[in-house]
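Encode chain A's predicted structure.
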Amino acid sequence: MEWFKLFSNEYANGVTAVAASLALLLTALTLLSLKREYRAKYRPYIVPAVAVDEVEKEPGQITLVTSIHPRNVGPHPCWIKISDIKLVIGDEVIDTITTIKEWSLIGTQGASVAFPSGEIFPIGIQRIRENFYQVNRIELHFTSHTKSIDDDHKSSQRCLFVIEIRGLKPIAMYRPDLLTVSSDLNR
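Encoded structure for chain A:
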């Protein structure tokens, strides 16, 4: 009977150790799942946008002023920084402001902040309308870097907008499909 006491004591210790290990594993998986859900909930939800405004600097001379307006559509505020801003007018690449070094805080529910991105002078507008260039379009390239308030989730997004000026009002259109084409042209 002594061997049965020894066996049941060892068996009970073994079962307790296995149960404790399973409970620890289950706790770790639950915490991992909760962390993933927390990060998904608090990550930045940014939608890029570009505004093009007509400004009459001299009588009869319209200059287009472009600015980047990233919008936070998420439920929590986040930080944003814009870098690698390039304005491409036809075949000419214009480095406007290479990097905005400071992080900007954007609030919730469609809040936005404006980053200047360049000007298109009347000569550039005229050349586009007269098909002077090989590629007759205006492109605005930039990279938006976002991070959550607690610096836990960081992301970067390369953006390309085409500014159409052939109509009555200038229109900026988000064109991610042109990113690979423009990258091949070393812009």
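DSSP finds three helices and twelve strands in the chain.
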